[in-house]
Design brief:
- This protein is mainly α.
- The protein has helices at 2-27, 36-56, 60-63, 67-89, 101-112, 115-127, 147-163, 165-168, 175-186, 192-197, 202-224, 252-272, 277-302; strands spanning 92-95, 228-231, 240-241, 244-245.
- The protein folds into two domains: 1-65; 66-302, no CATH class.
- Strand 3 and strand 4 (244-245) form a beta hairpin.
Length: 309
Amino acid sequence: MKRVILSRLTGITGAGLFLTALVGLIRGLEPFATWFYTFAWWSYIMMADALIFQYQGSSLLMNRFRELPRLAVSSITCWLIFEAANLILGNWHYRGLPEPAPLRWLGYLLGFATVFPGLFQTKELLGLTGLLGQDRTTGKQTGTSWLAPCAILGVILLMLPLQWPRYGFPFIWLAFIFLLEPFCFIGGGRSLWDDWAKGQRRDIYLWMSAGMLCGFFWECWNYWAKAKWIYTLPFFNRGRIFEMPILGYLGFAPFALECVVMYNFIRMLEEQYLSTAAAGRRWLFGQMIFWLLMFLAIDHWTVLAGVAG
């Protein structure tokens, strides 16, 4: 009963936060006008969780709350890998960010931390609708002949955008699926390839659908915020919806799968090789050093001159 009440309060709080941020955006009130994207996402995560709990009696925030910090930390780390690639690709830049570095970096943390929780909540919410039917499990055993070709393809897809950014940039949204999936399988983690081979394909379709829906939200909420990203692709720049060229929306489905594979890989590492408290602390410390270096790099190369005062 306590969780039912708490879930309802979470949903109401999320709705209230979203409406407050929206009014603040319309009236130009801070911090809502600058950070509308971040306010919108965290309020959405809360509202989605309330709906999920209402329909299935369990949810991320009510029953698996300890998973939220892990999702958020992994979300920051994995998104910053794409930010690192963007230092070479130059596909997006940030503008309208506040001048004080501590405030700007807090914005990075809170914004980047929403990617995985928002995606995972959306997928779980879509799953409750009965969308895409049911799995037809075959029970087929997954072989190992695919492992080496898959990893090699992942390396190629990762190198193409880094070596030839003008023409290879779209492959960054596919590379980690193929690069990390074999390691997830070998390490005993969750494997999308294994699920597919066994006929358990509904989740994969749901992830892709969640990616498309989140892609719309990512671009919509970014468009209206003062602190935002803008795209400067080598081509495909015409016919934009919000800040994203129309063809760019095709990348959100594979990006969702990338997020899942990257998270599965991190979970496998943590459970198989970083399970001790000391190893966990070192792993978190290493990630935080990576965050610091990437925040400095983003400030120097990705943030457009003339940040907000």
